[in-house]
């Protein structure tokens, strides 16, 4: 009987080991991307809504602020001006954002400043340094992520004419109504003017401007949503009708912009 030849030991070459390591590293990177762009966003977005809801509940437990007193308007009639808060410090939370089009649970903190490290990544929505305050004549201008870190402005392109954009503070609720949407270059900062893109014009109106990066996952442009002030409701009167849920149509395809 002829003896079987001895088995030859397989030796892992440097190239094969390196290939396996690269495959493993690639899989880990892919998992991180999936986490960062989808799973992490879902978790952070839910956490941001919970933080906003907690602040809303805290305000509800506080003594009800005195409503603003009527003043005489230009035509001699009495008007009730909305209260205007002092400009917040960097990363100081002063308000919550509610947009029924974005969901019944959408309740995101708004803080001073638009830096990623201190405000946009950690809190949610940031107030531009030169912005006016809620209810103040001029442009109340805000920034937020459209992807990652909870993406509070992810659905900004889904806003429809007259959709409510409601800003809640300790005093009550400021309701703005969405008017129009446009895309601009990142350098086009005149969208933040008191009258957006019209430096020589003074209207005495109260505007809101929401800005985010566009297209999705890109810094090439800015998507800008504009709204106009509708009214203020003191906390003593309870939540405004503008917070009522809206019917959101589902779509199988999302726009790239």
Automatic annotation (TrEMBL):
This is Class E sortase. The active site is at 145 (proton donor/acceptor), 213 (acyl-thioester intermediate). The chain crosses the membrane at residues 12-38. It comes from Microbacterium bovistercoris. Pfam families: Sortase. InterPro entries: Sortase, Sortase_Class_E, Sortase_dom-sf, Sortase_E. CDD domains: Sortase_E. Keywords: Hydrolase, Membrane, Transmembrane, Transmembrane helix. GO terms for molecular function: hydrolase activity.
């Amino acid at each position: 009987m002829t003896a079987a030849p001895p088995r030859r030991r397989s030796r892992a070459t440097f190239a094969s080991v390196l290939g396996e390591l690269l495959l493993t590293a690639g899989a880990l990177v892919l998992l991180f991307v999936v986490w960062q762009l989808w799973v992490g966003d879902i978790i952070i977005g839910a956490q941001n809504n919970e933080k906003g809801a907690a602040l809303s509940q805290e305000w509800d437990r506080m003594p009800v602020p005195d409503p603003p007193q009527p003043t005489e308007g230009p035509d001699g009639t009495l008007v009730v001006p909305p209260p205007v808060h002092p400009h917040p410090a960097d990363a100081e939370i002063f308000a919550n954002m509610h947009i029924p089009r974005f969901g019944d649970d959408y309740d995101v903190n708004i803080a001073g400043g638009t830096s990623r490290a201190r405000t946009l990544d950690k809190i949610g929505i940031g107030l531009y340094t030169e912005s006016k305050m809620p209810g103040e004549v001029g442009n109340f201008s805000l920034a937020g992520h459209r992807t990652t870190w909870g993406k509070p402005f992810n659905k900004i392109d889904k806003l429809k004419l007259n959709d409510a954009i409601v800003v809640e503070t300790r005093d009550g609720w400021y309701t703005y109504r969405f008017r129009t949407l446009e895309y601009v270059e990142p350098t086009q900062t005149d969208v933040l003017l008191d009258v957006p893109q019209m430096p020589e014009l003074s209207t005495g109106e109260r505007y809101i401007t929401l800005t985010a990066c566009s297209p999705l996952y890109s810094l090439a442009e800015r998507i800008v949503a504009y709204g106009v002030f509708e009214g203020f409701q003191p906390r003593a009167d309870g939540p405004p009708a503008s917070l009522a849920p809206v019917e959101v149509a589902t779509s199988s395809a999302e726009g790239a912009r």
